[in-house]
């Protein structure tokens, strides 16, 4: 990898692509913990849904990761 | 690379592809070219199959350790994934979901198994194949459960929206159901394992370089970095173990969600 503008672009693609999902994951997991603390009896359902949500949010960050190799 | 440095060669990282490409050692240059990845994939399916055959060959009322461990896996998939997502219909899908879960999980585990150290799921072929299988499956199940027209109508024109909104809604549903679903399913598994494999390789190279290659082991330059990397390596391996299990779980639960969505249209 030479020090051309393309490598900076690849870094930027991943770095910028990780911002949104990072904020999203913070909100998502925070709210899920809040829900579990308020209603411990619903923890199982909340956890399953949380992992599903994580999977969808995380996919965006991973698109950025894969794209940074393509760009 | 390090061998080159030890003999006075230049410092440069090889292209990332070198971590993921293996020469075929059987049937080279044919369609059936067989390399280390294919061998590992076969080994994974064999291992998963044998594990369950041995565990449930002579089922006992008071289970032994292997039997109770495998029962715990099956029960987890039945209660936490199939029934929770699909309701009572889930019982029919437990065998498929267990197969997918064990196959993906064992393939992910190869990432941290010593002397193997390569997850076949970090090559796009395996996740893509699994995703295409799930894609065909959930469309087929939807057509079987609701009829051809019924399935596409309930998927593309979800009931309960005002008529004018369908101009906006139908393209979104089309892309999210029939393009983004298989794509994200495959890319999620692939990218997680790709990232994990690169990170583990980098940390092992760091340890090796800064603790054993002479010009770098100087205390003022590299030794502290090597020690930090050595301390971080077990944590990273533990993290990758969790990631491997979590990705297998997410792959399975998404398969269940997609199949469940085809079985029961939204009201």
* Largest interface by Cβ-Cβ < 8 Å: A-B, 16 and 20 residues
Largest sheet of chain A: none
Using the alpha-carbon principal axes, give the shape of chain A.
Answer: elongated
Number of strands of chain B: 0
The CATH architecture assignment of chain A turns out to be Up-down Bundle
Number of helices of chain A: 2
| Count of individual beta strands of chain A | 0
Distance between the termini of chain B: 59 Å
Write down the domain tally of chain B. 1
Could you tell me the mean pLDDT of chain B? 85
Query: Helix-strand pattern of chain B, N to C?
Result: HHHHHHHH
Protein structure class of chain A: mainly alpha
| Shape estimate of chain B | globular
Main sheet summary of chain B: none
CA gyration radius of chain A, whole angstroms: 17 Å
How big a fraction of the residues of chain B is strand? under 5%
- The assembly state of the depicted protein chains is heterodimer
The CATH topology of chain A turns out to be F1FO ATP Synthase
Report on the architecture of this protein.
The complex is a heterodimer of chains A (71) and B (267). Chain A is 87% helix and 0% strand. With 71 residues, chain A is mainly α. Chain B is mainly alpha-helical and 267 residues long. Chain B has one domain. Helix content of chain B is 68%, strand content 0%. The radius of gyration of chain B is 23 Å and the shape is globular. Chain B starts with a helix and ends with a helix. In chain B, 28% of the residues are buried. The interface between A and B is medium-sized, with 16 and 20 residues.
Short description:
Helices cover 87% and strands 0% of the residues of chain A. Chain A is built from 2 helices and no strands. The model of chain A has no long low-confidence stretch (mean pLDDT 85).
SSE map:
The complex is a heterodimer of chains A (71) and B (267).
Chain A: H1 5-38, H2 43-70
Chain B: H1 2-6, H2 36-55, H3 65-86, H4 94-109, H5 125-146, H6 148-156, H7 166-212, H8 223-263
